[in-house]
């Protein structure tokens, strides 16, 4: 399975495709694009204005991974649907959590 994240020495970079104003907050599934890159699909009910959808995404991911919101930052894609999030912490532990989250 192609994974939507990459591990580094002290963090993980996670690629997400966000749908704001999506009716509910949920992490959906992993998709692979035609060029072979994977991303995790997510929806949030927040509107895409003044960073509300990004904040909702960080809160959803923090809750789902059981890690503090302060450990998650937006690395790129502030106004785009395709985002890269940096999650600070033990990369092996985070990879296990992400893998179990994506197998649900």
Automatic annotation (TrEMBL):
SMART domains reported for this sequence: DUF167
Entry-linked Pfam families: DUF167 (PF02594)
The protein, known as: UPF0235 protein FAA97_13925
Similarity comment: Belongs to the UPF0235 family.
InterPro entries assigned to the protein according to its UniProt record, in alphabetical order: DUF167, YggU-like_sf
Source superkingdom: Bacteria
